[in-house]
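Weekly structure sync, notes
Attendees: PL (lead), two postdocs, one rotation student
Agenda item 3: pending single-chain targets
PL asked that the sequence for the first pending target be pasted directly into the notes so everyone works from the same version. It is reproduced below exactly as submitted, 361 residues in total.
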Amino acid sequence: MNICDINVPKAEQDSLTIHQRLPNGHDNGGSAEVLRLVPLPYAMSFFLNQFRQVLIFKLTLPTRKIINKNNLLKGDILVLDLIAYNNWERPIYFAVSISPSSYLGLQRYFQLEGFTYRLVPVNTKKQGQFFGRVNTDLMYTNMMTKFRWGGMDKYTLHLDENAMRMSMNLRIQFTRLAEALAVEGKNDSALAVIDKCVEVMPHENVPYDFLMYQMADLYTQLGEFEKATPIMDKLIEVNKGNVRYYLNLDKFRLKAFEQDYQQSQAILLQISETYYRNDRTAEAHEVMAFLAGLLDDDLAKFYQPEEDILSNRDKLLQTTMEWLSHLHRITSTYNDSVLADSIREIITIANQNLIEAPTLE
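Predicted structure, written out during the meeting:
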């Protein structure tokens, strides 16, 4: 490994400055923050990794805080150089599907326009799990009139694993656009976006997942409960089958699917809350009763003196009891007193049985 220093002459220091300015005449409305990156160090240490032949620059702390990386690969340096000398003359885009580490900490300056983020000189605060702003007019035009979907709406088409993963990304962008339009009060456009998502990615080709619950919930918020019902019914069917399958696995295999198992439970729980909020108590009661029964059966394993269970019992028990407490809170909030009383009884019996359960010596 060769290690050496680059001492940049003062006359050439500006060539390493990563600096952005607004184009002449650009109006930022008085609230936008001009994009400025901390200049790269004038004297940088670098080393050549002889195994991968990748040139990596070590970053000083100020730069590292902005870029959010400990090292810069050659591709990163290329991107920063492009930003530095582009002078906002041509648009710069990042794909939504690449690793966040490739964004170089610039996410706050992103504008979503479809399946790409455009770098803009406007600082947008992160909202929830998403970052950047949404250009609803441009993104709506792209998603609704310009993009082609490759036949995903044809039931005879087979999507392989890679295409299926990408389809999840597409649903995320549909969701972001619909939510942004709803916030702007463009309810008709938001509904059209959801309709488009359901049309081009049907369950038969792209099985409904947690993202489709968000779509269904947005339908209900926009007053279209009847459109949400088929989606929620399918999600209930799919996720009931999932949790039954997971619970039929032996303990070791179930541990490998723990995250999927909990996600299916969470989807069913969220659907029941949506039913409660829309005065569909009977449907909500049925889903919650199913979950309560599963958790009651799940508790039985904590009473067994098996070493593999007892050694992890505290963690497993805490998760199960938290789920039951959550169910009890929701059913009580929406005055489903019969089910709330039943869940409270399950919790009481569980607490008593666990006191008498064997412990691992």
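Discussion points:
- The radius of gyration is 26 Å.
- The chain has a mean pLDDT of 75.
Action: rotation student to compare against the earlier draft before next sync.
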